[in-house]
Amino acid sequence: MPLIDRTTSGVYIICATPFTETGALDLDSLDRLVDFYVGTGVTGLTILGMMGEADKLTPEERRAVIDRVMARTSLPVVVGVSDAGLGNLAALGLYAMEKGAAGLMVAPSKGSPREDRVIAYFHAVAGALGRDVPIVFQDFPQSTGIPVSSRTILELSADLPQMVMLKHEDCPGLTKITTLREAEATGAPRLSILCGNGGLYLPQELARGADGAMTGFAYPEALVETVRLWQEGKQAAAEDLFDRYLPILRHEQQPGWGLAVRKTVLMKRGAIACAATRAPGPRLTGTDVAELERLMGRLAKKLAKEV
């Protein structure tokens, strides 16, 4: 499996983790989900991310997910390995690389929001993993509580050759992309920039110089086609296509609740057997489901008119 690098582009879909109604890991649904994602044309997958409920999995379950996904696809797979303990992070990360991972995603550790601490932490992570392991810096201050400046990202990119990608989820964050690309134009090492936040701002992020998306959305084909059209120079067509999905994309991005929406859509699209999140987690009511079905129906009608 190829490793990610500083030129990686496309769509790396954040993979949900399927569970049964009782909360058990559903590996058969994971197979179906991987097949579904591959069928939408994604460039790669990212597993065990925050929206993959990795923090609710046991160490054994995390390894089971890695094993199952790696056995199911030849696409590059990035593995989220963020952990409160550096030893735990390194053990899972090295296990994932042995199994064929394309790289590892790491978020700043929680604690004092000082940038010198972030810099020291990523040097420690890089030392624990080794120079040959590609690292994705997950910049998601809305979740971690750790804001990170463009200057710090550029410093780490220059100091750590293995930090090859930024998963950009700062919000507002468009200016950060511009700052990084301007610095690269004057000699800073290039970083691959793939963006998160469900893809809500994807056309604007691509216009600022992002290389694609690394995020979750229950209609991955929308992200794939948006990035493809943009990279082909068809920016207006990319934005027109993206706009068709905006109502349901926006609906899926409700904080603390969107994962249940995403899993319900994936279930209704036949990708997983059950929409359950692992406790404690959100669950849709009958009214919520009816509302979602209406949005899905409206989208289906829009898309049918184009055929």
TrEMBL record:
Pyruvate binds at residue 214. Keywords: Lyase. InterPro entries: Aldolase_TIM, DapA-like. GO terms for molecular function: 4-hydroxy-tetrahydrodipicolinate synthase activity. The keyword Secreted does not apply. GO terms for cellular component: cytosol. The keyword Lyase applies. CDD domains: DHDPS-like. It comes from the Bacteria. Belongs to the DapA family. PANTHER family: 4-HYDROXY-2-OXOGLUTARATE ALDOLASE, MITOCHONDRIAL, DIHYDRODIPICOLINATE SYNTHASE. This is Dihydrodipicolinate synthase family protein.
